[in-house]
Design goal:
Layout: H1 2-15, H2 30-33, E1 35-41, E2 46-55, E3 58-65, E4 68-75, E5 80-83, E6 86-92, E7 95-103, E8 110-119
Length: 120
């Protein structure tokens, strides 16, 4: 069991998935985040984020894309947060970058799709 945990840990480090920020959580400007954000990924699939109830560094987020709907409470740090397999990164001027890990159900291969969002 220890060998499996070691392998998993090494994999996470190599993939840079456990790169936790050393910065503490700090309050954010609700006006910079709240609203409806829309865009499309590089694979042409559309997505929407609806961000509400921003209080301190917490927010409520609804994510929609091609039949998938996720609703989650999030913590905002370093101008970003995660909802499921998606990461929202605030770029400023009503724009954001989105990164989502997508697993192919046939091959079980995971790939990263990116997109740009604009607040509407």
């Amino acid at each position: 069991m220890a060998d499996i945990m070691s392998i998993l840990s090494t994999g996470y480090v190599q993939a840079n998935l456990n790169s936790a920020s050393s910065k503490p959580y700090t309050n954010v400007d609700p006006e910079a985040y709240e609203g409806r954000w829309e865009g499309s990924y590089t694979n042409s699939k559309k997505f929407k984020f609806t961000i509400s109830q921003v209080n301190g560094f917490r927010a409520q987020v609804r994510y929609e894309s091609e039949g998938t709907i996720k609703f989650q409470s999030v913590l905002i740090r370093d101008n970003s947060f995660r909802v499921g397999d998606s990461k929202f990164i605030l770029a400023g001027n009503n724009k954001a970058s989105i990164r989502t890990a997508v697993t192919d159900p046939v091959t079980n291969q995971t790939s990263l799709v990116t997109g740009k969002a604009v607040r509407s």
